[in-house]
Design a protein that fits this description.
single chain, 107 residues, mainly alpha, 2 helices, elongated
Length: 107
């Protein structure tokens, strides 16, 4: 009888810890996707900026190709970044996870 009572009392604690680990896993996955898409966006913007450098005759094909790749990939990376940020914000709001505050922003 004592074992059954102990099991009934401790079962919600164990199931809650499993729920917390699932939430933590989802949070880590979303944060990682946001960081990866942000770095991809910065690379594509950097490719466009690299194309604005002065061009000589011998490297015009390379810089032109990099610029075109940056122009094509930047909207795609921006869209992906905004989608993942939106998903992360909804997840944080749904599960009442506090957001890290940036230094220097007063709200």
């Amino acid at each position: 009888m004592k074992k059954i009572l102990l099991f009934i009392l401790l079962f919600p604690i164990f199931s809650f810890s499993q729920l917390q680990s699932d939430l933590l896993e989802q949070k880590i996955i979303l944060d990682t996707k946001v960081e990866l898409t942000k770095s991809n966006l910065m690379v594509s913007v950097g490719a466009i900026a690299f194309g604005l450098l002065p061009v000589t005759d011998d490297n015009i094909n390379i810089i032109g190709g990099i610029t075109i790749a940056g122009i094509v990939s930047t909207p795609y990376n921006l869209f992906r970044y905004l989608v993942y940020v939106n998903k992360r914000s909804k997840f944080y709001k749904k599960n009442n996870i506090p957001r890290k505050k940036k230094r220097g922003r007063n709200k």
